[in-house]
Amino acid sequence: MGTAVNAPTVPVQVLLSTWNGARWLPALLESLQQQSFQDWQLLVRDDGSTDQTLRILLEWQDQFPEKVAGILADGVNLGSTRSFSRLVEISTAEFLCFCDQDDVWFPEKLEVQYQHLRRLQGEYGEHTPLLVHSDLAVIDQHKEILAVSFWESRDFDLAQDKRAYLLDNVVTGCATAFNRAAAAKAFPAPLQAMQHDRWLALVCSWFGHIRAIPYPLLLYRQHEHNQLGANGGSVRGLEARVQAWGAQAEAFLCRFGDELWAEDYRHVEALAELRHLRGWERRQHILRHRLFKQRVLASLALLLFA
Fold first, then answer.
1. Over the stretch 237-256, which tens digit does the pLDDT of each residue have?
2. Glycosyltransferase 2-like domain spans which residues (predicted)?
3. Is the pLDDT of residue 5 over 80?
């Protein structure tokens, strides 16, 4: 089942990928209805739900048809990265926002992010990839506050050099908004992309501009099906990350290598090669090419255990 994507009549499209989200969707949809900025439409792709997700979406579409740009439900489970990538590919608006089914947006979220993007676009031009992202307040499945600031709880360093985005990412998809130039530059995401939001941030950091909004604009829900962060603390988890960094770096070179300065190309290439090395040879490679993470302890762990 699917509906055609409506022609762009609004400046903002909210991109929502759903999968068995019936428990959480009503709260999200209510928070969208309460946005202070109302010049937006929802573009949805369902990733093969088997619960009442589609029924909830269709009922909401019947109630607010002017707010729905399209609902795509082909029954295929692509996973979140490919599903969101597909949404970006078929989107039509000038500005886009990723949206997770289990979050709750503050009423000012769209308005604040839209204003920031408009200012950035006025400064750098509409052909420059631009991304804004905010902090998040973390809640549990019962809507109890776990962290007032996601950034502080994870000790993020927001003043990142573009190379830091190869190994680290402080951009959370549901807290982002980006322009058409960013969509065109980054998507479709390659199969080797670690996540859709991480790939987008990497591309924007190298070829455009990223601006952080230093306060939460949504409640970021964590529950048994959405663990906070990946398991990178174990040796096995760290090795999996090294492999993922390398594969993504290789995909980055394949797509953008011709646009990179020689020094930048060598740096990305060094990261792609890291996954093929072991032991002391890998440690020497990390030191020689300065393949460091943003936090000192994380870089030490990489040297000791990768």
1. 889 999 999 999 999 999 99
2. 14-183
3. no
- Residue 124 burial (CB count, 10 A): 15
Q: How confident is the model at residue 301 (pLDDT cuts 50, 70, 90)?
A: confident
The total domain count for the chain is 2
- Residues 6+ away with beta carbon under 8 Å from 210: 130, 131, 132, 133, 171, 201, 204
Q: Spell 45-68 as b/e; 16+ CB within 10 A means b.
A: bbbbbeeebbebbeebbeeeeebb
Q: If you compute the radius of gyration of the chain from its CA atoms, what whole number of angstroms results?
A: 19
What pTM did the predictor assign?
A: 0.93
Same domain, 31 and 134: yes
Q: 96, 105, 95: which is closest to 35 by C-alpha?
A: 105
Query: Tell me, what CATH number does 71's domain have?
Result: 3.90.550.10
Amino acid 249: pLDDT: 98
Q: 242-280 as b/e, with b when 16 or more CB fall inside 10 Å? A: bebbbbbbbbbbeebeeebeeeeeebbbbbbbbbebeee
**Residue with tokens 């969101």, as numbered in its chain:** 84
For 183-201, b where at least 16 C-beta lie within 10 A, e where not — what string?
A: bebbbebbeebbbbbbbbb
How high is the pLDDT of residue 229?
A: 44
